[in-house]
Specification:
249 residues, alpha+beta, Rieske Iron-sulfur Protein, seven-stranded antiparallel beta sheet, four-stranded antiparallel beta sheet, 4 helices, elongated
Length: 249
């Protein structure tokens, strides 16, 4: 009997589907709460009919002015830092001397201007020799009749020098060693020394843009030191959009 009474009470409190629909419609028709004016909210100094307090208005104005000021200083700085990455550089060639000055059994150093307008800081030494058919097995074309080797170590960028007695490029910073072709022969460098395009014009040798190579001396768009180009490394370290190797090379 007690269970029957509890069941009856439960059924009495259960709403019918019709009651549920009526309750849902009533909730939909409920009017939104009216927004109080500052005077109705009893904010000191409020005007009649005012919905935004002067304090809130001044706070919003100050925040907006601060945002504009920050953007005025930040956006130009970001643009100055990022723009050079996307500023495409045109190939530039520099004459380094008559072709007869460069033998095929040793390197001849020449000073090359890599960045104009900054004096000696923008200059670097390049080691140049003629293509040696007994040593060089890379595919020959108009841009490698002469081999121009960069002196920037591919470990951390320290300057290397060519030691004629050992026919090696030596990095004094961390013991990087490269063979006669510029391939890694020991130490921490992750890839061979970078190279420069060369071409012959009116009996003179011109040195052009820099490019990077992997262990097989395959050409890639220039990379920074510490970026390997063998295997998956060539995909993990993409080149900058502004600096690319010459087309079809």
């Amino acid at each position: 009997m007690f269970a029957t009474t509890r069941t009856a009470a439960r059924l009495a409190h259960r709403k019918s589907p019709r009651d549920a629909r009526f309750h849902f419609v009533a909730r939909e028709r409920k009017q939104p709460k009216k927004k109080l004016t500052t005077e109705e909210a009893q904010i000191p100094g409020a005007f009649e009919g005012e919905t935004v307090s002067r304090r809130r208005f001044m706070t919003g104005t100050a925040h907006a002015a601060s945002g504009i000021a920050v953007a005025a200083f930040t956006l130009p700085a970001v643009g100055f830092a990022v723009a050079p990455v996307f500023d495409k550089q045109e190939p530039r060639w520099e004459t380094v001397g008559p072709v007869g000055d460069f033998p095929d059994d040793t390197y001849v150093p020449r000073t090359l201007t890599l960045v104009r307008g900054i004096g000696d800081v923008g200059k670097s030494t390049v080691y140049i020799r003629k293509y040696n058919t007994d040593l060089d097995d890379e595919e020959r074309d108009e841009y490698n009749e002469f081999i121009a080797i960069s002196t920037r170590c591919m470990h951390l960028g320290c300057p290397v020098r060519f030691v004629a007695a050992s026919e090696r490029f030596i990095c004094p910073c961390h013991g990087g060693v490269y063979d006669f072709q510029g391939k890694v022969d020991g130490g921490p460098p992750v890839r061979p020394l970078d190279r420069f395009y060369t071409r012959i014009r009116n009996g003179n040798l011109e040195v052009g843009p820099r490019f990077s190579v992997n262990s097989e001396l395959k050409r890639f768009s220039p990379r920074d030191p510490g970026m390997p180009l063998d295997g998956i490394g060539q995909y993990l370290y993409p080149a900058r959009p502004s600096v690319r190797k010459l087309p079809n090379t």
